[in-house]
């Protein structure tokens, strides 16, 4: 896991909070709905919810010290990347242009090469979207790679759910 300090530009007061924050349960990110996120009626287009959820997952990784650029450069012994293996989404209520959304991401379990996350999108405490995500770490060949122990410790807020020695 690397320390990027000023490289991310997050030491700049204007950038503070751009990646959200780690919480007791996982990670929280605020995001505004822009015109580009909506369909012609001003409601968020269904595929855009995936992007809000991705930002939450990516920023959880970043704040936990795992940077996509370092994975791609092979700084962990080989080139690695994340792939989403499975996603289940329940759309409860629509988000609309100018809404401020809260993206909460929680790691539920880590096993072998897989990580299981629960995510919610809310607006002022009202649940809009729930998602369950199964992602995996893969090498350049596309084959699964065991989840590094130090990552598991950084992501999990409930250590009893970590089983990095179990086969994926």
- On the 0 to 100 scale, the average pLDDT is 85
Look at the structure and give the CATH class.
Alpha Beta
Q: Could you give a short account of the major beta sheet?
A: 7 strands, mixed
User: What is the N-to-C order of secondary-structure elements (H for helix, E for strand)?
Assistant: EEHHEEEEHE
Question: Approximately how much beta-strand content do the residues carry?
Answer: 25-35%
Shape: globular
CATH topology: Thiol Ester Dehydrase, Chain A
Total discrete domains? 1
Number of strands: 7
Ranges with pLDDT <50 over ≥5 residues? 1-6, 158-168
From the coordinates shown, what is the CATH architecture? Roll
Oligomerization: single chain
Helix content: 10-25%
End-to-end C-alpha gap: 22 Å
Class computed from helices, strands and strand pairing? alpha+beta
Give the count of helical stretches: 3
Describe the structure.
This protein has helices spanning 46-63, 68-72, 149-155; strands at residues 21-22, 27-32, 80-91, 100-111, 114-123, 126-139, 162-163. It has three helices and seven strands. It has one domain (36-154): Thiol Ester Dehydrase, Chain A (Roll), CATH 3.10.129.10. Strands 1, 2, 3, 4, 5, 6 and 7 form a seven-stranded mixed sheet that branches. The model is unreliable at 1-6 and 158-168 (pLDDT under 50). The protein is an alpha+beta fold and 168 residues long. Strand 1 (21-22) and strand 2 (27-32) form a beta hairpin. It is 18% helix and 35% strand. It is globular. The chain starts with 20 loop residues before the first strand and ends in a 5-residue tail after the last strand.
């Amino acid at each position: 896991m690397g320390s990027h300090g000023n490289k991310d530009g997050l030491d700049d007061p204007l950038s503070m909070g751009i990646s959200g924050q780690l919480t007791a349960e996982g990670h929280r990110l605020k995001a505004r709905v822009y015109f580009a996120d909506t369909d012609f009626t001003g409601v968020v287009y269904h595929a855009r919810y995936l992007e809000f959820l991705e930002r939450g997952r990516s920023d959880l990784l970043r704040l936990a010290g795992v940077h996509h650029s370092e994975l791609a450069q092979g700084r962990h012994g080989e080139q690695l990347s994340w792939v989403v293996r499975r996603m289940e989404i329940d759309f409860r209520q629509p988000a609309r242009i100018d809404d401020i959304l809260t993206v909460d991401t929680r790691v539920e379990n880590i096993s072998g090469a897989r990580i299981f996350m629960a995510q919610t999108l809310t607006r002022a405490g009202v649940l809009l979207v729930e998602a369950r995500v199964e992602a995996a770490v893969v090498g350049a060949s596309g084959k699964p790679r065991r989840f590094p122990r130090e990552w598991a410790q950084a992501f999990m807020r409930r250590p009893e759910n970590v089983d990095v020695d179990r086969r994926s």
